[in-house]
Amino acid sequence: MLGGDYNGRFIIDSLTGAVSITQVLDREETQNFTLTLQAQDSGPAPLSSTTQLHLVLLDENDNVPLFSRESYHASISEGLSAGVEVLHLSAFDPDEGPNGVVTYSLTENSSNGAFSVEPFTGVVRTTRSLDREQTP
Questions:
Q1: Do residue 70 and residue 95 come from a single domain?
Q2: How confident is the model at residue 131 (pLDDT cuts 50, 70, 90)?
Q3: Residue 109: its pLDDT value, please?
Q4: What CATH code is carried by the domain that includes residue 76?
Q5: Is 35 domain-assigned?
Q6: Mapped to the 3 state alphabet, what secondary structure does the chain carry?
Q7: Would residue 112 count as lying in a domain?
Q8: pLDDT of 102-126, one tens digit each?
Q9: Which domain, by its residues, includes 23?
């Protein structure tokens, strides 16, 4: 017998005692489960005992990082030197551990080499002096 209110997410085979899931579990929804298991004999006055099974769901890389904004806009003056901070990107991934670590990069040819982004901080910087007459 299986105890606990888990909306039918678990079943137990009464002959083998194997506990199985009946639906996909999501660590971001529920990280831990404690199931109460009961064993009962078939005597004329059945005897039983219980134990608990503690389950910890391990993370799967099942979430995409999401930026805190749908788009970013910045205005900068021409003639700034290389290395000037333009803006700071921010994204979050609800996965756990390495699966939730976000790194940033520019897509190929997206800045014509005028900007760089620091992979772990999300800071976008100029890589050279900018000229509005060449590229607005």
A1: yes
A2: confident
A3: 77
A4: 2.60.40.60
A5: yes
A6: CEECCCCCCEEECCCCCCEEECCCCCCCCCCEEEEEEEEECCCCCCCEEEEEEEEECCCCCCCCCEECCCCCCCCCCCCCCCCCEEEECCEECCCCHHHHCCCCCCCCCCCCCCEEECCCCCEEEECCCCCCCCCC
A7: yes
A8: 999 999 777 788 999 999 999 999 9
A9: 6-56
